[in-house]
Amino acid sequence: FKVNGDENNNLTIGMEKKEEKKEKKKDKKDLRREFSYSKFQQTILLPENVEKDKISAKVEHGILSIEIPKVKEEEKQKTSKAIEVK
């Protein structure tokens, strides 16, 4: 699995799987091979109130979990700026 973020608030999740199976028969001349390949990619647009530096991902028992924390309301107020209208 791959999880990437960019400056445009996009989160891209990708997965690639390659598999090869070999099967030998009793007679050594007979050999059977199977190949499979699958690829998945999804891009998600994140909202503005996400802490991009704290996004984390993990795979456990074949399940991908992505944690996307939001900016706390008090921190959001610190970063916002009031503009005086004249």
Strand line-up in the sheet with most strands: 1-2-3
Gyration radius (Cα, Å) is: 23 Å
Question: What is the chain-wise order of helices and strands?
Answer: EEEEEH
Structural class: mainly beta
Number of helices: 1
Q: What is the typical, i.e. mean, pLDDT?
A: 79
Largest sheet report = 3 strands, antiparallel
pLDDT under 50 segments (min length 5)?
none
- The overall strand count is 5
Fraction of helical residues: under 10%
Q: Beta fraction of the residues?
A: over 45%
Inertia-based shape: rod-shaped
Spatial gap, N to C terminus: 52 Å
Explain this structure.
The strands form 2 sheets. The chain has a 3-stranded antiparallel β-sheet, with no helix packed on it. Strands 4-5 form a two-stranded antiparallel ribbon. The termini are far apart. The longest helix is centred in the last third of the chain and has 7 residues. With 86 residues, the chain is mostly beta strands.
Question: Topology of this protein?
Answer:
Blueprint lengths: L1 E4 L4 E15 L6 E15 L10 E5 L2 E5 L5 H7 L7
Antiparallel strand pairs: 1-2, 2-3, 4-5
